[in-house]
Amino acid sequence: MYLIRKNLFLVSNLTLIFLFLLDICNAKSSDIKIVDGDTIHINGEKIRFSGIDTPELKQTCLSNKEIFFCGLEAKNLLVKIIDNRDVNCISEGKDRYKRTLAECFVGDLSLSRYLVREGYAFAYRKYSNKFVKDEEFAKNNNKGMWSMSFEYPWEYRKKN
Fold it and tell me: Measured between alpha carbons, how far is 74 from 67 in angstroms, rounded to an integer?
C-alpha cells in the first residue's frame, strides 16, 4: 500500500512538472487578439506561430490579373477557423522580439498546419521543416497563394 501511494505521488508530481515545462496556455477566444496570419495575442502575451510564415497584412498577390490582399486573407482565414472556440498553445521558446514561439490548436487542429495546407502560409524552412509536406500538398493542389503570383513573405519584408 505504501509503495502504491508513493508511486501515485511520484507520477502525479512528474505529470505536473511535465505540463509546467511544456508551458501549455489555454484561452477562450474572447481573450484572443488576432494580429495577422501567424501572430496572436492571448491575455496580452504575444504568440508567433513557430515553423510557418504568412504574408504581411499589406502584402498583395496577383490573381487573374487582379490585386488580391493575400496577407489580409491569411488573417481572415485564421479568424474564421478560431471562430469563438478555445485556443491551446504549446510554447517552444521565445524569438528575438521576445514573442512566444508556439504551435496553437483549436481542438486537435493545428492552426499552423491548417494555414499551410490552405495555401496561406509557408513552411519556414529557415527555422523548421515541420510543415514542408503540408506546403507540398497546398502547392500540388494549387491551394490559396499557390494559385496566384506572389512573393514569399521573407522576400517581401526585405523589400518593404
Answer: 15
10-24, 45-59, 136-150: least confident range? 10-24
- What is the model's pTM? 0.81
pLDDT, tens digit (0-9, with 9 covering 90-100), for 133-150: 999 999 999 999 999 999
Query: Contact, 142 vs 149, CB < 8 A?
Result: no
Whole-number Å distance between alpha carbons of 117 and 25: 24
Question: Which of 31, 22, 39 is CA-nearest to residue 86?
Answer: 31
Compute the 3-state secondary structure of the chain and give helix, strand, coil in percent, each to the nearest 5: 40, 30, 30
Give Cβ neighbours of residue 31 (< 8 Å, ≥ 6 apart). Answer: 42, 43
Say which CATH class 24-159 falls into: mainly beta
Grid cell, residue 93, equals 521558446
